[in-house]
Design brief:
The complex is a heterodimer of chains A (about 300) and B (about 450). Chain A has 10 helices and 8 strands. Chain A is an alpha/beta fold and about 300 residues long. Chain A is globular and about 60 Å long. A 16-stranded antiparallel beta barrel of chain B has the order 1-3-4-5-6-7-8-9-10-12-13-14-15-17-18-19. The radius of gyration of chain B is 38 Å and the shape is elongated. Classes of the chains: A alpha/beta (about 300), B alpha+beta (about 450). At the A-B interface, α3, α4 and α5 of A face α1, β7, β9 and β10 of B.
């Protein structure tokens, strides 16, 4: 009995801030937190590269992880509205509640696209706070990295210099990579494309791709065959070069259209872990560009 | 002569050229110097600009969040949600005469109605009161135009360390289905075991405290005290708590696609002089009363599967609960006339098991089996007066629902209800449930 008590005491009296537990809602933020935090942080991602972050279950395992988090890093802009409020409510963790320093929403630090002019559920899954899929533009990653580094400094002041150094190193490598990507992607500028879900506004904005059609008639509403026929008819008048979809999207609608419109359907990683090649943030954009350029050449 | 003139001319030209060259060299040096200072100046200015830009970029989000929206009177209004629901029922037995055989005290009027009917409309309000408390209210508007406060509770949000305290009127954390709203249930009606042993759904006016363990596996324990709001609740006027509940839940993931949750709960209450109407063995309508203690045990589990954790296209849910009610005390037979006291002890239990499969986006099919065990009832001397049934009520239901979006659901349910001995009720239900406004997400 006494031994058991000693073990319990030892377990619960371990220094709580040996490492900073970071609960990330999506893998891109877990990866970014690891880039900035190195061995001072331990990251956990609530979703994987093959999961649709709009719709996941508030599973018991996620509640348990949220309970022990020292910092919450999510996209925000209502992307996680279907599950994050439940995790926060059931976590019993006061630190990570909205308004606390340990509640970090990446979308607060970038300029959002697709702000809806009107809100009506008849329009489907419209995001009132703008398009939340900000991670497809590397300039947004840089902006979020700046803000997240600041937040890490604030929460874990003892390691501020460490986070500063890692941030400076990451930002320099990221800027180099960005100029490389922009050079590689020059042939894609102005290219007309079709998207499956409105997940790619930021990527299109960055690379100058022109989205001429979306397979979902309204965001989050499954493409119907009537709507696909309509898209096909439109593509005959205004041809597109390829169709893009996220790794977690159902492949049927884009494959259906690809066969009939005789253009390639491209699966993009969308986030870290979306494809076997997208192993970190740098590889995510390397792989995205490689797949886009391959599709552009194929035509 | 001519030669001398040419030489002089050449000399003049030469010296002039030399002078010009010297002047050019001085100019170039000067220009170089000017260019160098300009260059340094501009480089310094660019560096300064870059630094200013970096500072501005770093400060921009703070500036953006520091500028609040214009305060409007309704800016702090809590989100509003309205659940609308209606049914069409075709029943082979009269719902007005519904009573589960052998469950006299536990029976309550059926909510089912033949033909078209409106079910409860639920008006929900929820929001943060301040940085420390959150409030939730659900007002149920019944089809008979009565209003019922289904939930009205406040919860702590800032205790930390895994603690949460809820106070007010809330659905007890006992079992799996009990804490969910009816509209989140996968079948039109509640399981028979819930109906007979838990009074359909146990609401409590009281306090709940829960604690989540700091482990990677989900482990939660909780306790409730207060006044119960259905037949389990004693009609006692006393200080202190009438009813206590303890629950523990554990859960986790088996892999990327499969997760589970299991719980064990116990309820203790001590009803005093609790009355109910029943038909006795002689066929007379009598009123009886029970005083004693009731202990309820409940075990529940749920297993959810979705390929790669994406439930949008396909998913499967398997759930089951076992309820065992152990009562002992005194039953007064026919309180109006004979008023015969008899020692009473009863062990009743029941369970249900159900599976719901979403086979294609928007379409789900489900099967549920219910069973109650009627034996184990002893009325003592009143065994001569009151029915002790050995009948085991059962029911099997199948359902198919279509969900055009996450806010709308249309359901068809067929049931074969054998909860009344010798009177099988064949049931057909068509139900719609729609959610308007800021409807919160559902728990696991």
């Amino acid at each position: 009995m006494r031994n058991l008590l000693l073990i319990l005491f030892a377990t619960f009296s371990l220094p709580a801030h040996a490492v900073l537990n970071i609960f990330a809602c999506e893998p891109e933020w877990a990866m970014l937190a690891a880039e900035l935090g190195g061995d001072k942080v331990k990251t956990f991602s609530a979703t994987g590269g093959l999961q649709d972050p709009h719709r996941i279950e508030a599973r018991p395992s996620l509640i348990a992880r949220a309970r022990n988090a020292d910092l919450l890093v999510c996209t925000g802009a209502e992307l996680e509205t279907g599950w994050l409020p439940l995790l926060l409510g059931q976590s019993g963790n006061a630190k990570i509640q909205a308004g606390q320093p340990a509640h970090f929403m990446a979308a607060d630090y970038v300029t959002k696209l697709d702000m809806p002019a009107q809100l009506d559920r008849a329009e489907g899954d419209v995001h009132p706070a703008g398009n939340p899929h900000i991670q497809t533009d590397p300039r947004n990653i840089l902006a979020v990295a700046d803000a997240l580094a600041q937040r890490l400094r604030r929460i874990d002041a003892a390691n501020a210099a460490f986070y500063d150094a890692r941030h400076a190193d990451f930002a320099a490598r990221w800027r180099d990579a960005m100029s490389r990507w922009e050079k590689q992607a020059a042939p894609l500028k102005g290219m007309p494309i079709v998207v499956q879900h409105k997940s790619w506004a930021y990527l299109s904005h960055w690379l100058g791709l022109r989205e001429v059609a979306a397979l979902e008639p309204r965001p989050g509403i499954e493409p119907s065959s009537a709507h696909l026929q309509e898209v096909l008819a439109r593509l005959e008048r205004e041809p597109a070069r390829f169709i893009i979809r996220a790794a977690y999207n159902n492949e049927r609608p884009s494959e259906w259209l690809a066969q009939r419109a005789h253009i390639p359907a491209v699966m993009l990683p969308f986030t870290v872990g979306g494809t076997p090649q997208a192993t970190d943030l740098f590889a995510l954009f390397d792989d995205t560009l490689r797949r886009l350029l391959d599709a552009a050449h194929e035509h | 002569m001519k030669h001398a003139v040419l030489t002089a001319l050449a000399a003049v030209l030469f010296s002039a050229a030399c002078a010009a060259q010297a002047a050019n060299e001085a100019d170039i040096a000067q220009i170089r110097e000017e260019i160098r200072t300009i260059k340094e100046d501009y480089e310094a200015r660019i560096r300064a600009l870059e630094q200013r830009l970096q500072r501005a970029e770093a400060a921009a989000p703070a500036a953006a969040t520091a500028a609040p929206k214009q305060p409007a009177d309704n800016a702090y209004n809590p989100p509003l949600a309205l659940i609308l629901s209606g049914t069409y029922a075709n029943l082979s037995q009269d719902p007005a005469a519904y009573a589960i055989t052998g469950y006299g005290r536990h029976n309550q009027p059926s909510q089912n109605r033949r033909g078209f009917g409106l079910t409860e409309s639920e008006l929900g309000l929820a929001g943060n009161i301040d940085p420390y408390f959150r409030a939730t209210a659900t007002i149920a508007l019944a089809p008979d135009n009565s209003v019922d406060v289904e939930n009205a509770f406040v919860q702590t949000t800032a205790l930390g360390s895994g603690w949460g305290v809820t106070a007010g009127r809330f659905h007890s954390g006992i079992g799996y289905l009990n804490a969910q709203h009816k509209h989140a249930w996968d079948f039109v009606d509640e399981p028979l075991a819930y109906r007979a042993l838990l009074g359909t759904q146990l609401g409590i006016d009281g306090v709940q405290a829960s604690w989540l363990a700091p482990t990677d596996m989900f482990l939660q324990i909780g306790a409730e005290a207060g006044r119960g709001l259905n037949f389990l609740a004693p009609a006692a006027d006393k200080n202190g708590s009438d009813l206590g509940v303890l629950f523990v839940a554990i859960g986790g993931d088996l892999d990327d696609s499969t997760s589970w949750l299991a719980g064990l709960s116990a309820l203790h209450t001590a009803p005093k002089n609790q009355r109910w109407d029943e038909t006795d063995l002689a066929g007379a309508a009598v009123t009886n009363a029970f005083s004693g203690t009731s202990k309820l045990w409940l075990a529940d589990f749920v297993l959810k599967w979705a390929p790669n954790g994406n439930p949008t296209e396909r998913n499967f849910k398997l759930q089951g609960e076992y309820l065992g009610l152990d009562e002992s005390g005194t039953v007064f037979y026919d309180t109006v006339a004979a008023n015969t006291p008899g020692a009473y002890s009863a062990k009743r239990d029941g369970w249900y098991m159900q599976g719901v499969y979403q086979f294609v986006r928007g379409w789900r099919a489900g099967l549920r089996h219910d069973r109650l065990n009627g034996g184990g009832v002893d009325y003592g001397v009143n065994n001569a007066n009151l029915l002790r049934s050995g009948y085991n009520p059962t029911r099997t239901s199948i359902m198919l629902d279509y969900n055009p979006s996450e806010f709308s659901r249309i359901r068809l349910q067929l049931g074969r209800d054998q909860s009344r001995q010798g009177a099988t009720d064949n049931q057909v239900f068509v139900q719609y449930m729609m959610s308007l406004g800021a409807h919160g997400a559902h728990r696991f």
